[in-house]
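User: For my dataset I need records formatted as: sequence, then structure tokens, nothing else. Please produce one.
Assistant:
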Amino acid sequence: MPALADVLVRARVSVICAAGPGAALAAKAATTAIPIVFLSGEEPGKIGLVESYNRPSGNVTGVAVVIERLGAKRLGLLRELIPSGTVIAALLNPRETTFDAQLNDVQEAARAVGQQIQILRASTEREIDAAFASAAQMRAGAMLVGISFFYTIRREQLASLAAQVALPTIYGQREYTSAGGLISYGSDLADAYRQAGIYAGRILRGEKPADLPVLQPTKFELIINLKTAKALGLAIPDKLLAIADEVIE
């Protein structure tokens, strides 16, 4: 990342758009002059990208797609699909920089509603296989998959394993349901990228990053894969189908 950021700085580009906290931090380290518009899944203040949301200061602003605040919503959606009192497994990647935040989020959400939850950790393909085997062995009624790029690029593996052990599973991105996953709920990333693009345009027209407050997502999407639900023998409540942004049949 630092080398790529240096290439852009040497090219004297007008604006750097950085997707992901790693890219954003590399860009910030490479220049204090070129405006930077980021899209980050981590709290930008905590990792040193900006001083505050309202007054980012310096040459950096963007969109904060904070991912660890949706555990309660995802847990609630799962609980509408399974019998009460059933154990829910939560699969998290301990190598993710947001692991602690996601862990606290899901644990607090479970405590708030008295939901029994079992945390499973996986950061390799073999550990993912083992996690689903453990979930089946403990007779978990459902699984919540945490946010991790490592998981996203292996979404077909996760969806396939969930189908093999007949485990209703919720994910944080629509890519999983497109790959055969049951249900996903999360920020509308296409809209977040659109917002970042609008900021880049405003900067090109003369506005300063320091004057543009960090944005947060305003659009969230619920995607349900009915084909997968039928394969699981799972009836999706009408009220969930009614609020879904997309139903895959």
